[in-house]
Amino acid sequence: MSRNVLILLWRTAELLAVYCGEGQIRLAGRVSCLGRDSRSAAEELLGALRTSGISIPADVRLLLGDALFRSWSIPLRSRRKALQSLELLMDGEFPFENEALEHRTVFCGRQSGGLRALSVSVLREAFEQRLSALRELGIEPSFVTAEPLPELMTLPAELRRSTVLFVTLKGDHGYAVVMDHGRPRNIVRVSAGKGTESLASSLQFVLHGQDLQKLVVYGEGRHSAEELGKALNLPHVSAGLAAFDMGRQESEGWRESAEAVLRMPMPGTLAWIRRSFDIPLFQNRASRAEFFAISRTVLAAACGVLLVATAWMSSVWAEDMAFRKAADRYEAEARSAALKAVPQLRRQMTLGQLESALRGRLEERAGAQTQEGGWIMPFLQAVHGSVPQSSHIQLDSLRTDSSHQGAFTAALSGTAGEYQDVNAFRDALAAKPGVREVRVVQAVSRSTGQDRTGGGTSLPISFELQILLEGQGR
């Protein structure tokens, strides 16, 4: 233990002082708060400490024992908007006027479609009276938080790997917390002064709808952990924080709270930055030494990162500029090509708008071509089936035209061995479904001096047919 620490545990009925120093943690004083104001209770406690020879150290930490907890599921992803919604939800949630409560809210994880939050509330007047009483006596707490939050932050690693029900007992009361892989999902204050069966009955509503793997019991009454586990039908771990780490067999509620406060990361330190989840703080006074130590560490790390970043930026700056120039050039070329292809487009349109317009134009053209050219494949099949097997016909070209009074026509040219072959091909093609008329535009004999049925490279009759398709023309 590097220095002396005084932990004040201020509950509704009592004020306890736990002194941590010289390798020991001991209860140094306890006074009743019933029927008296905060100033007189604090004066009596500090007087008892001085009488026993304990000087007040510079590091005093205040733990409040009478806070109200609420868990919230907010269907928003923005923390700023979620906080605004919580301000409205809290008004009317508690049996007090909203101005009578001091609220602190932290986010403790995400859920499907939103955030999970935890709010901690204390009576503002009582809180301000306690803080004012300590300040009048020359004590400024390093930080102020509430039970059992420090114990949740210091759970052993093996208990942060699943969903557990954490129960910490403080005499006649306790807290039941559903811990989901190290993060609090729900915190409920329960009565613990009437035996195990009564406590188990109080915990039943906490278990509703929860998929829990283990029960963990801290603090006073740990002897009933086995019975409590049986009553809740959960495997149990019966140990206090000290018993986990030191093999201690005795455990008291104040000791668990004090050791958790002592072990939790100090606000303003690097360990606090690396904490597993936020806990609400009602006051935080990080010491200057800790602040400057963190500042030096962060400054050194920032200088190293800055040097690396500078070297990296200098190496990629030229390449980045080249990429930017190329991107600008490509954008100008793409814009120019788009405007040439579709003059109706506006120059003020973004590249995304131009791309969308061009895609739509191409889809329209593709649909029109599909509709107009739907007769091509059936026509080619008809041509192929119209060539007589015994004839000598060779087709050279096919031209289509739809400009004549909206009619679809085709022109076939080729060569044949005989005029009879041309006539037979025309008649066979005209008999095909969908063909209205086939005309012989020309059939010209050309002499090649080669055998018509032999292995010559050309046939003597050159012909051209004009075909009018059924239902496509006039």
Task: Note down, in words, how this protein is organized.
The chain has 13 helices and 18 strands. Strand 10 and strand 11 form a beta hairpin. It is of the alpha+beta class. The radius of gyration is 45 Å and the shape is elongated. The longest helix is centred in the middle third of the chain and has 54 residues, at 288-341. Residues 241-251 and 449-457 have low confidence and may be disordered. It has a domain at 376-469: Gyrase A, domain 2. It has helices at residues 38-51, 79-90, 124-136, 149-153, 196-207, 225-232, 241-246, 253-263, 270-273, 288-341, 351-372, 376-386, 419-430, and strands at 5-10, 14-21, 24-32, 59-64, 68-74, 101-111, 114-123, 143-146, 163-169, 173-180, 183-191, 214-219, 236-238, 283-284, 393-404, 407-416, 435-445, 461-469.
Would you kindly provide a brief summary of this structure?
Helix 1 packs parallel to helix 3.
Question: What attributes does this structure have?
Answer:
single chain; 474 residues; alpha+beta; Gyrase A, domain 2; six-stranded mixed β-sheet; five-stranded mixed β-sheet; 13 helices; 18 strands; elongated
Topology:
Blueprint (H helix, E strand, L loop, with lengths): L4 E6 L3 E8 L2 E9 L5 H14 L7 E6 L3 E7 L4 H12 L10 E11 L2 E10 H13 L6 E4 L2 H5 L9 E7 L3 E8 L2 E9 L4 H12 L6 E6 L5 H8 L3 E3 L2 H6 L6 H11 L6 H4 L9 E2 L3 H54 L9 H22 L3 H11 L6 E12 L2 E10 L2 H12 L4 E11 L15 E9 L5
Parallel strand pairs: 1-4, 4-8, 9-12, 12-13
Antiparallel strand pairs: 1-2, 2-3, 5-7, 6-7, 8-14, 9-10, 10-11, 15-16, 16-18, 17-18
Helix pairs in contact: 1-3, 5-6, 10-11, 12-13
